[in-house]
Design goal:
Length: 328
Amino acid sequence: MTTPNNEVLLHVKNLVKHFPIHRGLLQKQVGAVRAVDDISFDIKRGETLGLVGESGCGKSTTGRSILQLYRPTSGNVEIDGVDLVRLKGEDLRRMRRKMQMIFQDPYASLNPRMTVGNIIGEPLIVHNIASGKEVDDRVSHLLELVKLNPSFATRYPHEFSGGQRQRIGVARALSLQPSFIVCDEPISALDVSIQAQVVNLLEDLQEQFNLTYLFIAHDLSMVRHISTRVAVMYLGVMVELASRKDLYESPLHPYSQALLSAVPIPDPIAEATRKRTILEGDVPSPANPPSGCRFRTRCPIAEKICAESRPEFREVTTGHFVACHMVK
């Protein structure tokens, strides 16, 4: 893992992404799914920010909104000081060279009608970076980087295992030499034995090319392994952001505490004696979130103020941010 410097590569401010709900014959808008609802954070060059939370909390929507695959409802997303939200057409296309995505499902994210060579080489041709034999040479080099045989370039995706397909996806993401990559649960569809190999590959590539990652995942132990800092999302909002050490050793938000209490400890005595936080009830609908604090309907320490006002996402100690009325 590279040690990040203090230069901010990605700056996200008040990011909002709502999906309209239409009903009736005239498809009138009757509401909105508030998938991402006013979140702000920075990622420094060379670091990995882990983004965790339950399914449906807005992690993947955050990643896609940053890359402008979903155009944000409001807010700012700056990479190297350039606000992507304001860009359109050719200007946005040029910026896409700096940012790429590794998708969750290696079976769905590769075109089955294209050879591996065409899949990896297509970005080079689209962005007019290389042509002819130069594309073939770059594809061979990229396959070697992800520990695959360059002769695989003539094969099709169905001929590979899930782990090999994900490596092809990594090679495609690297083809434009980006500085920022969104890893959208890149290991969740893989066997456990393969997951560590892919994560180690991502770490090696980060070291080699000074890459910056937003690593979205469910697996908290894997996030702890790869991340420099960790952010916790719940129902479209960010509830805690801290260094890996601070978050895992002293989580402040009740939701973070509940998530981490579910992670097994490889020590039978400690596992038997530690206290578990069991959350009751279901996650509310993002189309109709609770008033005030989003987590209050499931929070074991909620009080009246939690229903009345939304807690400010504030810095409690140096580098440790939390959104909770009960944390002083």
